[in-house]
Design brief:
10 helices, single chain
């Protein structure tokens, strides 16, 4: 599934790079199609599930945190380097690069990822799985976490560039310290989850997310000056602390 997903993702990336060569009337349609194919090939959930298959339960949360570090590092690098590459070689170059990296990942997975022995027992029917309240609670928690994530990454750049006038090339100066703090706290959350504190830490992480949302959209209500960068730096850091804390805690 990982190989198939990354192959589809690479195909979607190449489709996104093609519109620069098409008539203007077809550009947006081809771009939407490419992004759709990229989404079909998304393998984040499969990658985390693969970690669960290879790592013992007592070390699983820490392994999830280790997996999250390169994700965060790639995000930092993309935000800093992406505008430079796009400005010099065009936006389509980002998609060509993404597709090439996807194919490189396919090669690495095929070469180094060990095969998991096939299970002798059939998986439980979906209807039976959905009868477990704990599974439904985890599903709802994952839905809320990703809702927070989507809302944050949609509005945060708009607030930073609109309210505070930062250029996208300066965006990294805000993100880097936020992500460095969250990388440290992620290991604290994962270590606590490995010791059996997962439920308490998950509740604390969701509370941090709620506080970060309130600070981001209503900074004056909690004493932050909306015109200062602290009005985005503080809630942004809290959001990443809460979000990266949930990632290794939720199975």
């Amino acid at each position: 599934m990982l190989l198939l997903g990354m192959s589809i993702f690479s195909l979607g990336s190449f489709l996104c790079a093609i519109p620069a060569w098409l008539p203007r009337s077809l550009e947006i349609g081809e771009l939407i199609l490419g992004r759709l194919v990229q989404g079909v090939g998304a393998i984040t959930a499969t990658a985390f599930a693969t970690v669960s298959d290879h790592i013992p339960p007592e070390r699983r949360s820490t392994a999830m945190a280790v997996l999250g570090i390169p994700i965060g590092a790639a995000f930092i690098l993309g935000v800093i380097v992406g505008p430079v590459i796009a400005g010099r070689f065009g936006t389509q170059s980002l998609f060509w690069l993404t597709g090439a990296l996807g194919l490189a990942t396919v090669w690495l997975l095929a070469r180094h990822l060990p095969e998991i022995p096939s299970r002798q027992t059939a998986p439980a029917p979906l209807r039976e799985v959905l009868r477990h309240r704990s599974v439904l609670a985890l599903d709802f928690g994952g839905f809320l976490m990703n809702t927070f994530m989507t809302s944050f990454w949609f509005y945060f750049p708009l607030i930073v560039t609109g309210r505070h006038g930062l250029k996208m090339t300066e965006y990294g100066t805000i993100l880097v310290p936020m992500l460095l703090v969250s990388a440290v706290t992620m290991f604290a959350f994962s270590a606590g989850a490995d010791r059996g504190w997962g439920r308490t830490l998950a509740a604390a992480a969701f509370l941090i997310l709620l506080v970060s949302a309130l600070l981001l959209f209503r900074p004056a209500t909690l004493g932050l000056d909306p015109k200062r960068l602290s009005a985005v730096l503080v809630p942004g850091t809290l959001f990443l602390v809460g979000f990266t804390g949930l990632e290794p805690v939720l199975p």
